[in-house]
Amino acid sequence: MNRRASQDLRAANLELQSAEAELTELNQQLRSFEATVDARLGSLLDQLSELNAETTSLDAQLRHIREERLFGTDLMRYLDGAPRPARPPNLTDRPPLGLDDRNSIHRTVDSPPTLPDRNIPDIKMLYRKLARRYHPDLARSDADRVASNEQMTEINRAYNAGDLPVLMRLAGMTIPYGVEIPKLTLHPGIRLNEPLTELEQTERKLRAVRQRITLLSSLPIVKLSLEVKLARHQGRDLLREMSADLQHKVRRKIAERDYLRSQINTSMGGKDE
Description:
By secondary structure, the protein is mainly α. The chain is built from eight helices and no strands. It has helices spanning 3-71, 73-80, 123-133, 142-160, 164-170, 198-217, 220-233, 238-267. It is elongated, with a radius of gyration of 24 Å.
């Protein structure tokens, strides 16, 4: 190795060490703030998510009852029997997917993506972690809320399909060896048939760490942590204000759920479901 190459490698290693230290600190701050949000808002977020799912199901049930009355049972049976898109196969042989207990989100390994031989994370725990980070009710602006809704749509789609690699990609995690994933687009500077030099390997690691830092820094929950600190300097407790807002949303959702239940009960002639 010539002198110039040696200097470049030394500089790249120093830059990689600095980036990894920044990533480690950011991860620690994120986990700490996620624990705080989980303790103060977690139960309300869980309740709101469950109520949203329940009202969506009840609304669909009520529409079905009304359409059956309008179009007749025979037509509805025909529509129910229409072919539906095939569901992608699950990658893992696991029990039915559901939400694990809230504290489990902090057990997910969150180390830099270049470390080899990591275990495959539990899909429920990883989903829970992502759902916390991108929950729309944690967004503090309309733009962040729209972005969070888009991310949650993709997260929910991957979770319902049992697509662990997609969830890992959304979390900025490296797919462990042995998990089949689509071929990634290679960086233009990487050769296909020649081994990477030590400098190229270091630069690749550095890019991966920087991408991870960029991903974490753009999370709505990270932006929320900054707003919480700013509010604290202003003598406000932003998480308490958010808790009160979530409680109001929960009460409205409960009222909506109860209304839908009463409509279904009335539509069925006062009989129990």
